[in-house]
Amino acid sequence: MITIGQLAGYVGVSIKTIRVYHDKGLLPEPDRDASGYRRYGANDAIDLIKIRTLAEAGVPLSRIRDLRSATDEEFQQALREIDDELTARIRGLRTTQGRLRELAAGHLALLPAEVGGHLEQLAHWGFTPRWVDLQRDLWILVFATHPDHAITLFHDQAETLADPALRQIFLDYDQAHDLDADDPRIDELARRITRATRERYGPGEPPELDTASEIPALIQGTVNASSPAWQRLDTLIRAQLDA
């Protein structure tokens, strides 16, 4: 029989941890002997090793407590499930580790190559660095949160900008950033954008993200926050499309 300090040293946990396990009902607390000490046996050490192993695997203490009353078959099934969860976590950590190493080497690719090429083309077409940086940040957000839909949205925008007339509308949108919100040119630009949208998509809707997602609102809010003129332009376009 050994003391709590000896048990803690043998198993590799602190005395405080053992007392927490007592309080949580994970490890039965033995009675005190004639000298006033609590003495632990081999079974206590084995139980503590099991608890420590499960806790280190990330299993919540409440689940570990429930497993104390599980049958051998239930316990083995729980271990298999925990092993699967660990495998998934390890896979995720390895992916994260790979990204960190790419970041350290300066090779982290946040966007597909075709998107990077498109962003470079924007500058050649005359878009401001502000617009290019904004587009880059927004595409990073879209590809990170909606990888299954992002490429469709990107191709739609790329096709739109390939049309010189439509590209000019986007260039005018870019330049409108510094206009006063009440400038009449904002009203005219809103009408042009509404007309071009209806001509391109007809009665249908432009491709968009999941309507349950908060990302579209976040994206538009980010755009609007950078310019009162852009904010009013967005309000006018929405009103005209809904009319």
From TrEMBL:
SMART domains: HTH_MERR (SM00422)
Annotated source species: Streptomyces fildesensis
InterPro entries tied to this protein: DNA-bd_dom_put_sf (IPR009061), MerR-type_HTH_dom (IPR000551), MerR_fam (IPR047057)
Keywords: DNA-binding
Name assigned to this protein: MerR family transcriptional regulator
Stretches assigned to the HTH merR-type domain: 1-70
Secretion signal span: none
